[in-house]
Automatic annotation (TrEMBL):
Pfam families: SpoIIE (PF07228). Belongs to the PP2C family. This is Protein phosphatase. It catalyses: O-phospho-L-seryl-[protein] + H2O = L-seryl-[protein] + phosphate; O-phospho-L-threonyl-[protein] + H2O = L-threonyl-[protein] + phosphate. The keyword Transit peptide does not apply. GO terms for molecular function: metal ion binding; protein serine/threonine phosphatase activity. Its EC number is 3.1.3.16. Keywords: Hydrolase, Magnesium, Manganese, Metal-binding, Protein phosphatase. InterPro entries: PPM-type-like_dom_sf, PPM-type_phosphatase-like_dom, PPTC7. CDD domains: PP2Cc. Residues 86-358 form the PPM-type phosphatase domain. Its cofactor is Mg(2+); Mn(2+). SMART domains: PP2C_SIG (SM00331), PP2Cc (SM00332).
Amino acid sequence: MAVATAAHYYPIYNQPSSHHKQKRFFTSRSASYHQSNALAYHDEHPHQPQHHKSLPLLNFFSKSYAKPVPSYIFAHGASGFAKRQRYTTPDLNKNRNEHYYSIQIGEDAYFRRSDAIGVADGVGGWQGVSAANAALYSRKLMHHAYLELERFDNVDDPCFYHYDEADPVSILQKSYEESMQEAQQEGIIGSCTACLAILRHEELRIANLGDCGISVIRHNDYIFRSEEQQHSFNFPYQLGTSSPDRPKDAQSFTVAVEKGDIIIMGSDGLFDNLFDREILSIVKSQLSAFTLPGSGNRPPRMLSIEPQKISDALAERAKAVSNSKLNVDSPFQVRAVSEGLYYQGGKADDISVIVAIVKDCEDSPDRRL
């Protein structure tokens, strides 16, 4: 998917060179997880009896006391359409009693958690190749990404004590290794693109490889938009069989988020069919439906935003464009024409959309407690 809106919507950066990860910070503040608020007791008398040791008291009323970092979670919704109307999800449980934590949409797959979202797009070029199953490969990748994130919730797992250090590229790497191992054991081949986003306090940490995408909207405008990674036209970076690309080649971003920010994540079926300006227009129209008009001195008031309705609206519109070949423009058409190809209308593809709203964690600052 291509960046099709005006450049002022979001920062534009040069594409990272192949096989070199670049990490960008979309905040002027230091990353909170690199700072420690813990009080460390320095023992200047190593032979002092243990009962004489004490920690200093913390004055919560002192002006020097640092307030806790805001802790947020996602409220989210997801929608999608398979490219083939009669598409049947492969029998993923054949000869085994397995449960996948990822959802299949054609050859797309995604997962959702209160602190993370992810989407993968199985590469359709494997169609017709013996033993190929790009749909299963994308589902495995997202399934194992979900399981890796679960480790941070398990008090018996060492990851529990490194919750704030979660890194989407590392998660993608471990998921990739597990998926490749299973694929080899089961004798299947395939590949997929992928996008992961992890929420830690006021940071959104992103890893994007290929042409899935993610954007962040605040106050009716973009504050962030990912870039696609393409080797050449319609040949995205991908993970899997015979691909030289690796998770370390993913673009890595850190975005400072606030309560109420709207995150749009999707496969290329969304971004190949809808321009950024159209996505923004649909989001605005949905927000206006949840806004009570003001009167007199009373300003307009926003009701609770329903991410499911936003994702439904985006997926429905992307589907309508993908099925149309006349009198409609699409980002994919624009790129095809720029390559000297004749192309009209939208791009028929699987469509997966996740909409996540940043909201307060109502309980403990550590959302696991």
